[in-house]
Amino acid sequence: MGAGPMGGEVADLARPMPGRAIINLDAITANIALLRAKAGRAAFMAVVKANGYGHGAVPVARAALAAGATWLGVAQVSEALAVARALGGLPDGARLMTWIIGANGNLRAAAQAGLDVGVSTPGQAEAVAVASGEAGAATRVHLKIDSGLGRAGAPPAFGQWEALVRRALELEADGLVKVVGVWSHFACSDDPGHPSVVAQLEAFQAGVDQAQALGARLEVRHIANSAALLTRDDVSFDLVRPGLAMYGLSPIPDLASAAQLGLVPAMTLESHLATVKRLPAGHGVSYGHLYHVPAGVGPAGSVTATVPLGYGDGIFRSASDAAPVQVGGRRLRLCGRVCMDQFVVDLGPDSTAEAGERVVLFGPGLDGEPTAQDWAEAAGTISYEITTRLPAHLPREYVGGVGNR
Ligand SMILES: *Cc1c(COP(=O)(O)O)cnc(C)c1O
């Protein structure tokens, strides 16, 4: 039995559970090998924020470190501390980076734990420096340039990038921080022809040059997420930061599927049939009666069944009456509204299905089952959100990755 999302034991699988996510760590290993080959000599940061995009941050981190990742990345300091604790510390030479500094930044704990921290403003650099002073350990910081995304980071405009670099170098001279990186993030890397991509690369390079001219001695420059790494050859610099593609999902589904990219989706989400019964032709199904048993099913009606997963378990309500599922090797559509704890499938008039039969919501797609990308299209979202929204209470079971869990 595998470890839970943050390293604890999963719930007893003998208990009736609504469903489970099976995570194939060998798929993650293979995806990392493909991505590392694209990254050339650059180091590899496995992005395991949001509980490893729903896959479980700690087992994924272990598999990634075994596959040659030397960096782990998460958003929050609290996530980083939880991952580091569950791993029992990082292997020699490995680094753990965090980049969202909120009101309760927990920066002293970050300094004590030796985390790498991304900073976007002189005020953040100062807060990190104060915390480092209290902890008695200089924090390694990566200065974030807003090369065009317009989110976090210091933009070159109005001297803001220069001000961040100058302040961080002053704090470094005081022994409070160590400026180790310059980094950035793309706005439109999933649209490779978008003019912002090249403009951002140029702004990034100019920002690196300026930081070095001001005296920064950089260990790493990094900008590439999954889409950038998969669509361009000039974005790896010293370190790449893929998330989604490592989990085997395509960040550019309109241009290339996961299979076309050579990626293997790591997660299979499965459940089972709960209540199986017959409903007559014309009978409405689930809230709002969005679906009715078709008129043509004949006098014996149609076999319908509930599946005990709902939006309380991360199943998108916006996928109502649209998302595909696989039952007994057959591809079916989810019928009517997704409810809080269940949804309904119509198995047809001739079905002999019984309660307990396995239902696959999505998986790698190698056996006719739908994929997380299919669910994303049905729900009107992106595959990132399909796996990331799966809650902690949903059991995860791990296969593969033997020897590194
Ligand atoms: C989430 C994230 C990534 C990974 O992005 P993907 O599109 O999943 O590859 C990389 N860098 C930063 C700063 C991120 O927040």
Mean pLDDT: 94
The secondary structure category is alpha/beta
Question: Are any ligands bound, and if so which?
Answer: pyridoxal-5'-phosphate
Please give the CATH architecture of the largest domain: Alpha-Beta Barrel
Class of the largest domain, according to the CATH hierarchy? Alpha Beta
Shape: elongated
Looking across the biggest beta sheet, what order are the strands in? 11-14-17-16-15-18-10-1-19
Low-confidence stretches: 1-15
**Residues in β-strands, percent:** 15-25%
Describe the structure.
The strands form three sheets. Strands 11-14-17-16-15-18-10-1-19 form a nine-stranded mixed β-sheet. It is built from twelve helices and 19 strands. Mean pLDDT is 94; it is low at 1-15. Strand 5 (116-119), helix 6 and strand 6 (139-144) form a beta-alpha-beta unit. The protein has helices at 25-39, 49-53, 57-66, 77-87, 107-113, 122-135, 160-173, 195-213, 226-231, 258-261, 372-379, 383-388, and strands at residues 20-24, 43-47, 71-76, 95-100, 116-119, 139-144, 177-183, 220-224, 239-240, 267-272, 276-279, 284-285, 291-292, 302-307, 324-327, 330-335, 343-348, 358-362, 396-399. The chain is an alpha/beta fold and 405 residues long. It folds into two domains: 25-248, Alpha-Beta Barrel (TIM Barrel), CATH 3.20.20; 267-381, Lyase, Ornithine Decarboxylase, Chain A, domain 1, CATH 2.40.37. The structure holds pyridoxal-5'-phosphate.
